[in-house]
Write a structure and sequence with these properties.
Helices cover 45% and strands 13% of the residues. The protein starts with 12 loop residues before the first helix and ends with a helix.
């Protein structure tokens, strides 16, 4: 049967109208003004620190704290209600990995601790400006999803960052794309080839007030923020789990799958063997053919078992 909107009846529609007015007429302007003023203050302080503080180490420390403040401003602009569980992150750990639902994952985690992050490169818009002006200063590693030759250079930058003394812990989203917070797709192995302990982070959003999933193929990040800022609240739980190390004789792929399983179980996600990159690029013909053959063999073996007495 076709879906029927819940609010189109005589007793719920007036309540929906009241909620619409509160969210769009009262909450949204207050949140928008607060976001603009908070960001302006942080950027002014950032510019002052960039000019006044000559010691590179101290300047990076101040800039990292200002980035944490910026992310707290963003979280406040959605009336973010975030509960953090587990041991708090520290500079002793070098690599953190988390499931990925939206770019706000980074803002929520960064509001708690100054991470460096691996992120898709943005060349335009306010996202690109913030990335080049702010995130680069705290060790952001950018990659171009459409440039296959960029992978080797990114892998080297990751290795250098992890083994650099005094660098911020590296935050990696190994799914490589935003997922609907109900499934957990295949983890890329790059985060698990570094020969350092990996600290898993599980993020789970409550969809009662708003769906935090960002479908970048359907809406810009600006419109995604607008959706969040016109909702009642963004409610989330974040679990910092115990560090995990690669077992002796364990491959990077198996290590990635083991970490994925731990994150998925904690956040109540369903693990699926899909490559998140297929959201952006079609699989190669040989890949599709290999999948067809595997499926055919599976069906053949199932039919043979049924025929046996």
């Amino acid at each position: 049967q076709p879906y029927e909107p819940w609010n189109w009846n005589f007793y719920l529609f007036p309540l929906w109208c009241v909620g619409f007015v509160v969210r769009y007429v009262f909450l949204f302007p207050v949140r928008l003004v607060s976001l603009i003023l908070g960001m302006l203050l942080c950027l002014i302080l950032w510019s002052i620190a960039d000019v006044v503080i000559t010691n590179n180490t101290k300047r990076k420390e101040v800039e990292s704290r200002l980035l944490v403040c910026m992310c707290n401003v963003f979280v406040w602009s959605w009336t973010g209600v975030v509960q953090f569980h587990g041991p708090q992150p520290s500079r002793g750990a070098k690599v953190f990995v988390a499931n990925h639902t939206s770019m706000i994952d980074f803002m929520i985690l960064e509001s708690k601790f100054p991470f460096a992050v691996i992120a898709q490169k943005y060349n335009r818009g306010w996202e690109g400006w913030l990335q080049s002006r702010v995130l680069d200063a705290v060790g952001c590693i950018k990659f171009d999803r459409n440039d296959s030759s960029d992978r080797a250079a990114v892998a080297k930058r990751i290795q250098d960052h992890v083994h650099e003394h005094g660098s911020n812990p590296l935050l990696i989203f190994p799914e490589g794309t935003c997922v609907n917070n109900e499934h957990c797709v295949m983890f890329k192995r790059s985060a698990f080839d570094l020969d350092v302990p990996v600290c898993p982070i599980a993020i789970k959003y409550n969809k009662t007030f708003v769906d935090a999933f960002w479908n970048s193929k359907r809406e810009s990040f600006t419109m995604h923020l607008y959706k969040l800022m016109t909702s009642w609240a963004v409610v989330a739980d974040v679990w910092f789990l115990e560090p995990m190390e690669k077992l002796q004789g364990e491959s990077s792929i198996d290590f990635a799958a083991r970490v994925q399983k731990v994150i998925a179980e904690r956040a109540s996600l369903r693990v699926v063997p899909w490559d998140g990159m297929y959201k952006y690029i079609a699989p190669k013909p040989e890949t599709r053919e290999r999948r067809r053959r595997a499926f055919a063999e599976l069906m053949k073996s199932s039919l043979q078992k049924e025929k046996k007495p």
